[in-house]
Amino acid sequence: MRFALTTANRPFGVTILAVLHVLQAIFLFLVGLAVMTIGFLLSRMIFRFPLLLRGLLPVIGGVLIVVALLDLVLAYGLWSGRGWAWIISLILAALGIVFSLISLVFRGGVGGLVTLIIDAIIIYYLTRPNVKAFFGEAPAPASPAPPPPVQPPIPTGTSSRYCSNCGAQASPVDKFCKYCGKQL
Predict the structure, then answer these.
(1) Which of 170, 172, 152 has the alpha carbon at shortest distance from 162?
(2) Beta strands per DSSP E along the chain
(3) Domain-by-domain residue ranges, the chain?
(4) Side-chain-side CA neighbours of residue 101 (13 Å)
């Protein structure tokens, strides 16, 4: 697995995103556990409780726990600079924008607008060159072109001396060529 930069060079915003995903995973895990527990307790204590709800609450809790575990995996990927975590984060932010727009159209309110702005900032941030480089998603920097080779002057007349090796013009007092170093 390749890393463009070491994790010591992790951009600060990526650290924040990873920590927020860990906190979200903890919250989802606790809520999922609570929903499962309530579902099991209701099925044991209240026999008249609708069967659908008795069976649905543990399933919802289980789904929340699975999402929490996936959130932890995403946090790990962000923390360690994995390219797949960068892609998934972009996809989740784009989906967040779509759902925020739908929420704004049908329900209005400030919550959808705040979510829309946060997701737009996340997409903007994740597409910055240094962040993309951390995840190994930036194109490889172009290597500088090598300097053009020094071309010795081409002999034009017979009145001067020229190197027999490279053809560079030499003064009458030179014993070695200034360009290639061969004895004249």
Answers:
(1) 170
(2) 161-162, 169-170
(3) 8-134, 152-184
(4) 7
The pair of three-digit structure tokens given for residue 42, joined into one six-digit string: 């209701």
Structure tokens at 126: 């994740």
Reading the block at residue 109, the tokens are 């309110």
Please give the chain's pLDDT, 184 residues, in tens: 444 445 568 899 999 999 999 999 999 999 999 998 888 777 766 666 566 666 788 889 999 999 999 999 999 999 999 999 999 999 999 999 999 999 888 887 788 889 999 999 999 999 999 999 899 887 655 567 777 776 665 555 556 788 888 888 888 888 888 878 888 7
Segment (H or E) for 171: none
Q: How far apart are CA 160 and CA 153, in angstroms?
A: 12
Cβ atoms of 43 and 68 closer than 8 Å: no
Gap between the Cα atoms of 131 and 13, Å rounded: 9
**How many CB atoms are closer than 10 A to CB 139?**
8
Torsion sign across C-alpha atoms 176, 177, 178, 181: negative
- The whole-model pTM stands at 0.65
| The pair of three-digit structure tokens given for residue 122, joined into one six-digit string | 């996340």
Q: By three-state DSSP, how is residue 57 classified?
A: helix
Residue in this structure with the two tokens 């099925």, named with its chain if needed: 43
